[in-house]
Amino acid sequence: MIRNKGKIIKWNDDKGFGFILPSHSNGKKNIFVHIKSFSDKKLRPAEGQQVTYTIEKNNEGKESAIKVSRSTDHIVRNRNSSMHTQNVNPVNKRINTNNTQLKLKSTHRISPLYIIIIVSFVAFLFHFSLAGKLPPLVIVVYVVMGIMTYYIYSEDKDMAINNERRISEQRLLTLSLFGGWIGALIAQQKLRHKTKKISFQMSFWTTVFFNIILLSSTFRIIHF
Q1: In angstroms, rounded to a whole number, what is the distance separating the alpha carbons of residues 126 and 138?
Q2: What are the pLDDT digits (tens) for 98-142?
Q3: Is 35 exposed, middle or buried (0-12, 13-18, 19+ CB in 10 A)?
Q4: What is the DSSP string of 105-169?
Q5: Who's near 140: CB < 8 A, 6+ residues apart?
Q6: Residue 220 — φ and ψ, nearest 5°?
């Protein structure tokens, strides 16, 4: 079918139709066009747009434009495609509203130093438990608090990535103070969360120290 060229000279966006002035009118009437006839329906038609189209006649012999394309359709499509590509971040990064790149939650290796600390403390707990100087309930408390703290750190990491309201540092430190510091330490290492903020790390290790002091003091108070 022959493609014709023209320009939209009138458009009623509320009713979804308008008229095209053929480029070589030679006395031809304006061509009726409906919104459904446009190839790209995402972009609303407007007066002054250059278009190409084919002509269709209805049963009454009236002509209307079909398969209407604008000269800017491919430009807009390519621009939108480019913008979409730019907005799709690599699988390991996401941009928050502060234009700060945050790594998506992923797992990393735990530092050998921290493995030694964790293993030594766990051995410490089991040693005194087997010796009858430490109730098994204490180990259960550390396990439960550790799991819960790891989960909360994981949630806070997700919130950081999605730029949502964060869990307070005071809450994270309180969990560590009352036995969740092993889970916190694992989460910090595995998720790479809260490891670069020096003030938090200082407060965290302070809670670890006081937790161990509290545990040791309890030994002396109740004379296990």
Answers
A1: 10
A2: 444 444 556 688 889 999 999 999 999 998 888 888 888 999 999
A3: middle
A4: S---PPPHHHHHHHHHHHHHHHHHHHTTSS-HHHHHHHHHHHHHHHHHHHHHHHHHHTT-PPPPH
A5: none
A6: -75, -35
- The count of C-alpha atoms lying within 13 angstroms of the C-alpha of 135, restricted to the half-sphere facing its C-beta, is 9
Query: Mind listing the domains of the chain with CATH numbers?
Result: 4-75 (2.40.50.140), 107-222 (no CATH)
- CB-based contacts of 124, cutoff 8 Å, min separation 6: none
CA atoms of 72 and 45, how far apart (whole Å): 11
167-219: pLDDT as tens digits: 999 999 999 999 999 999 999 999 988 998 899 999 999 999 999 999 888 86
pTM of the model: 0.52
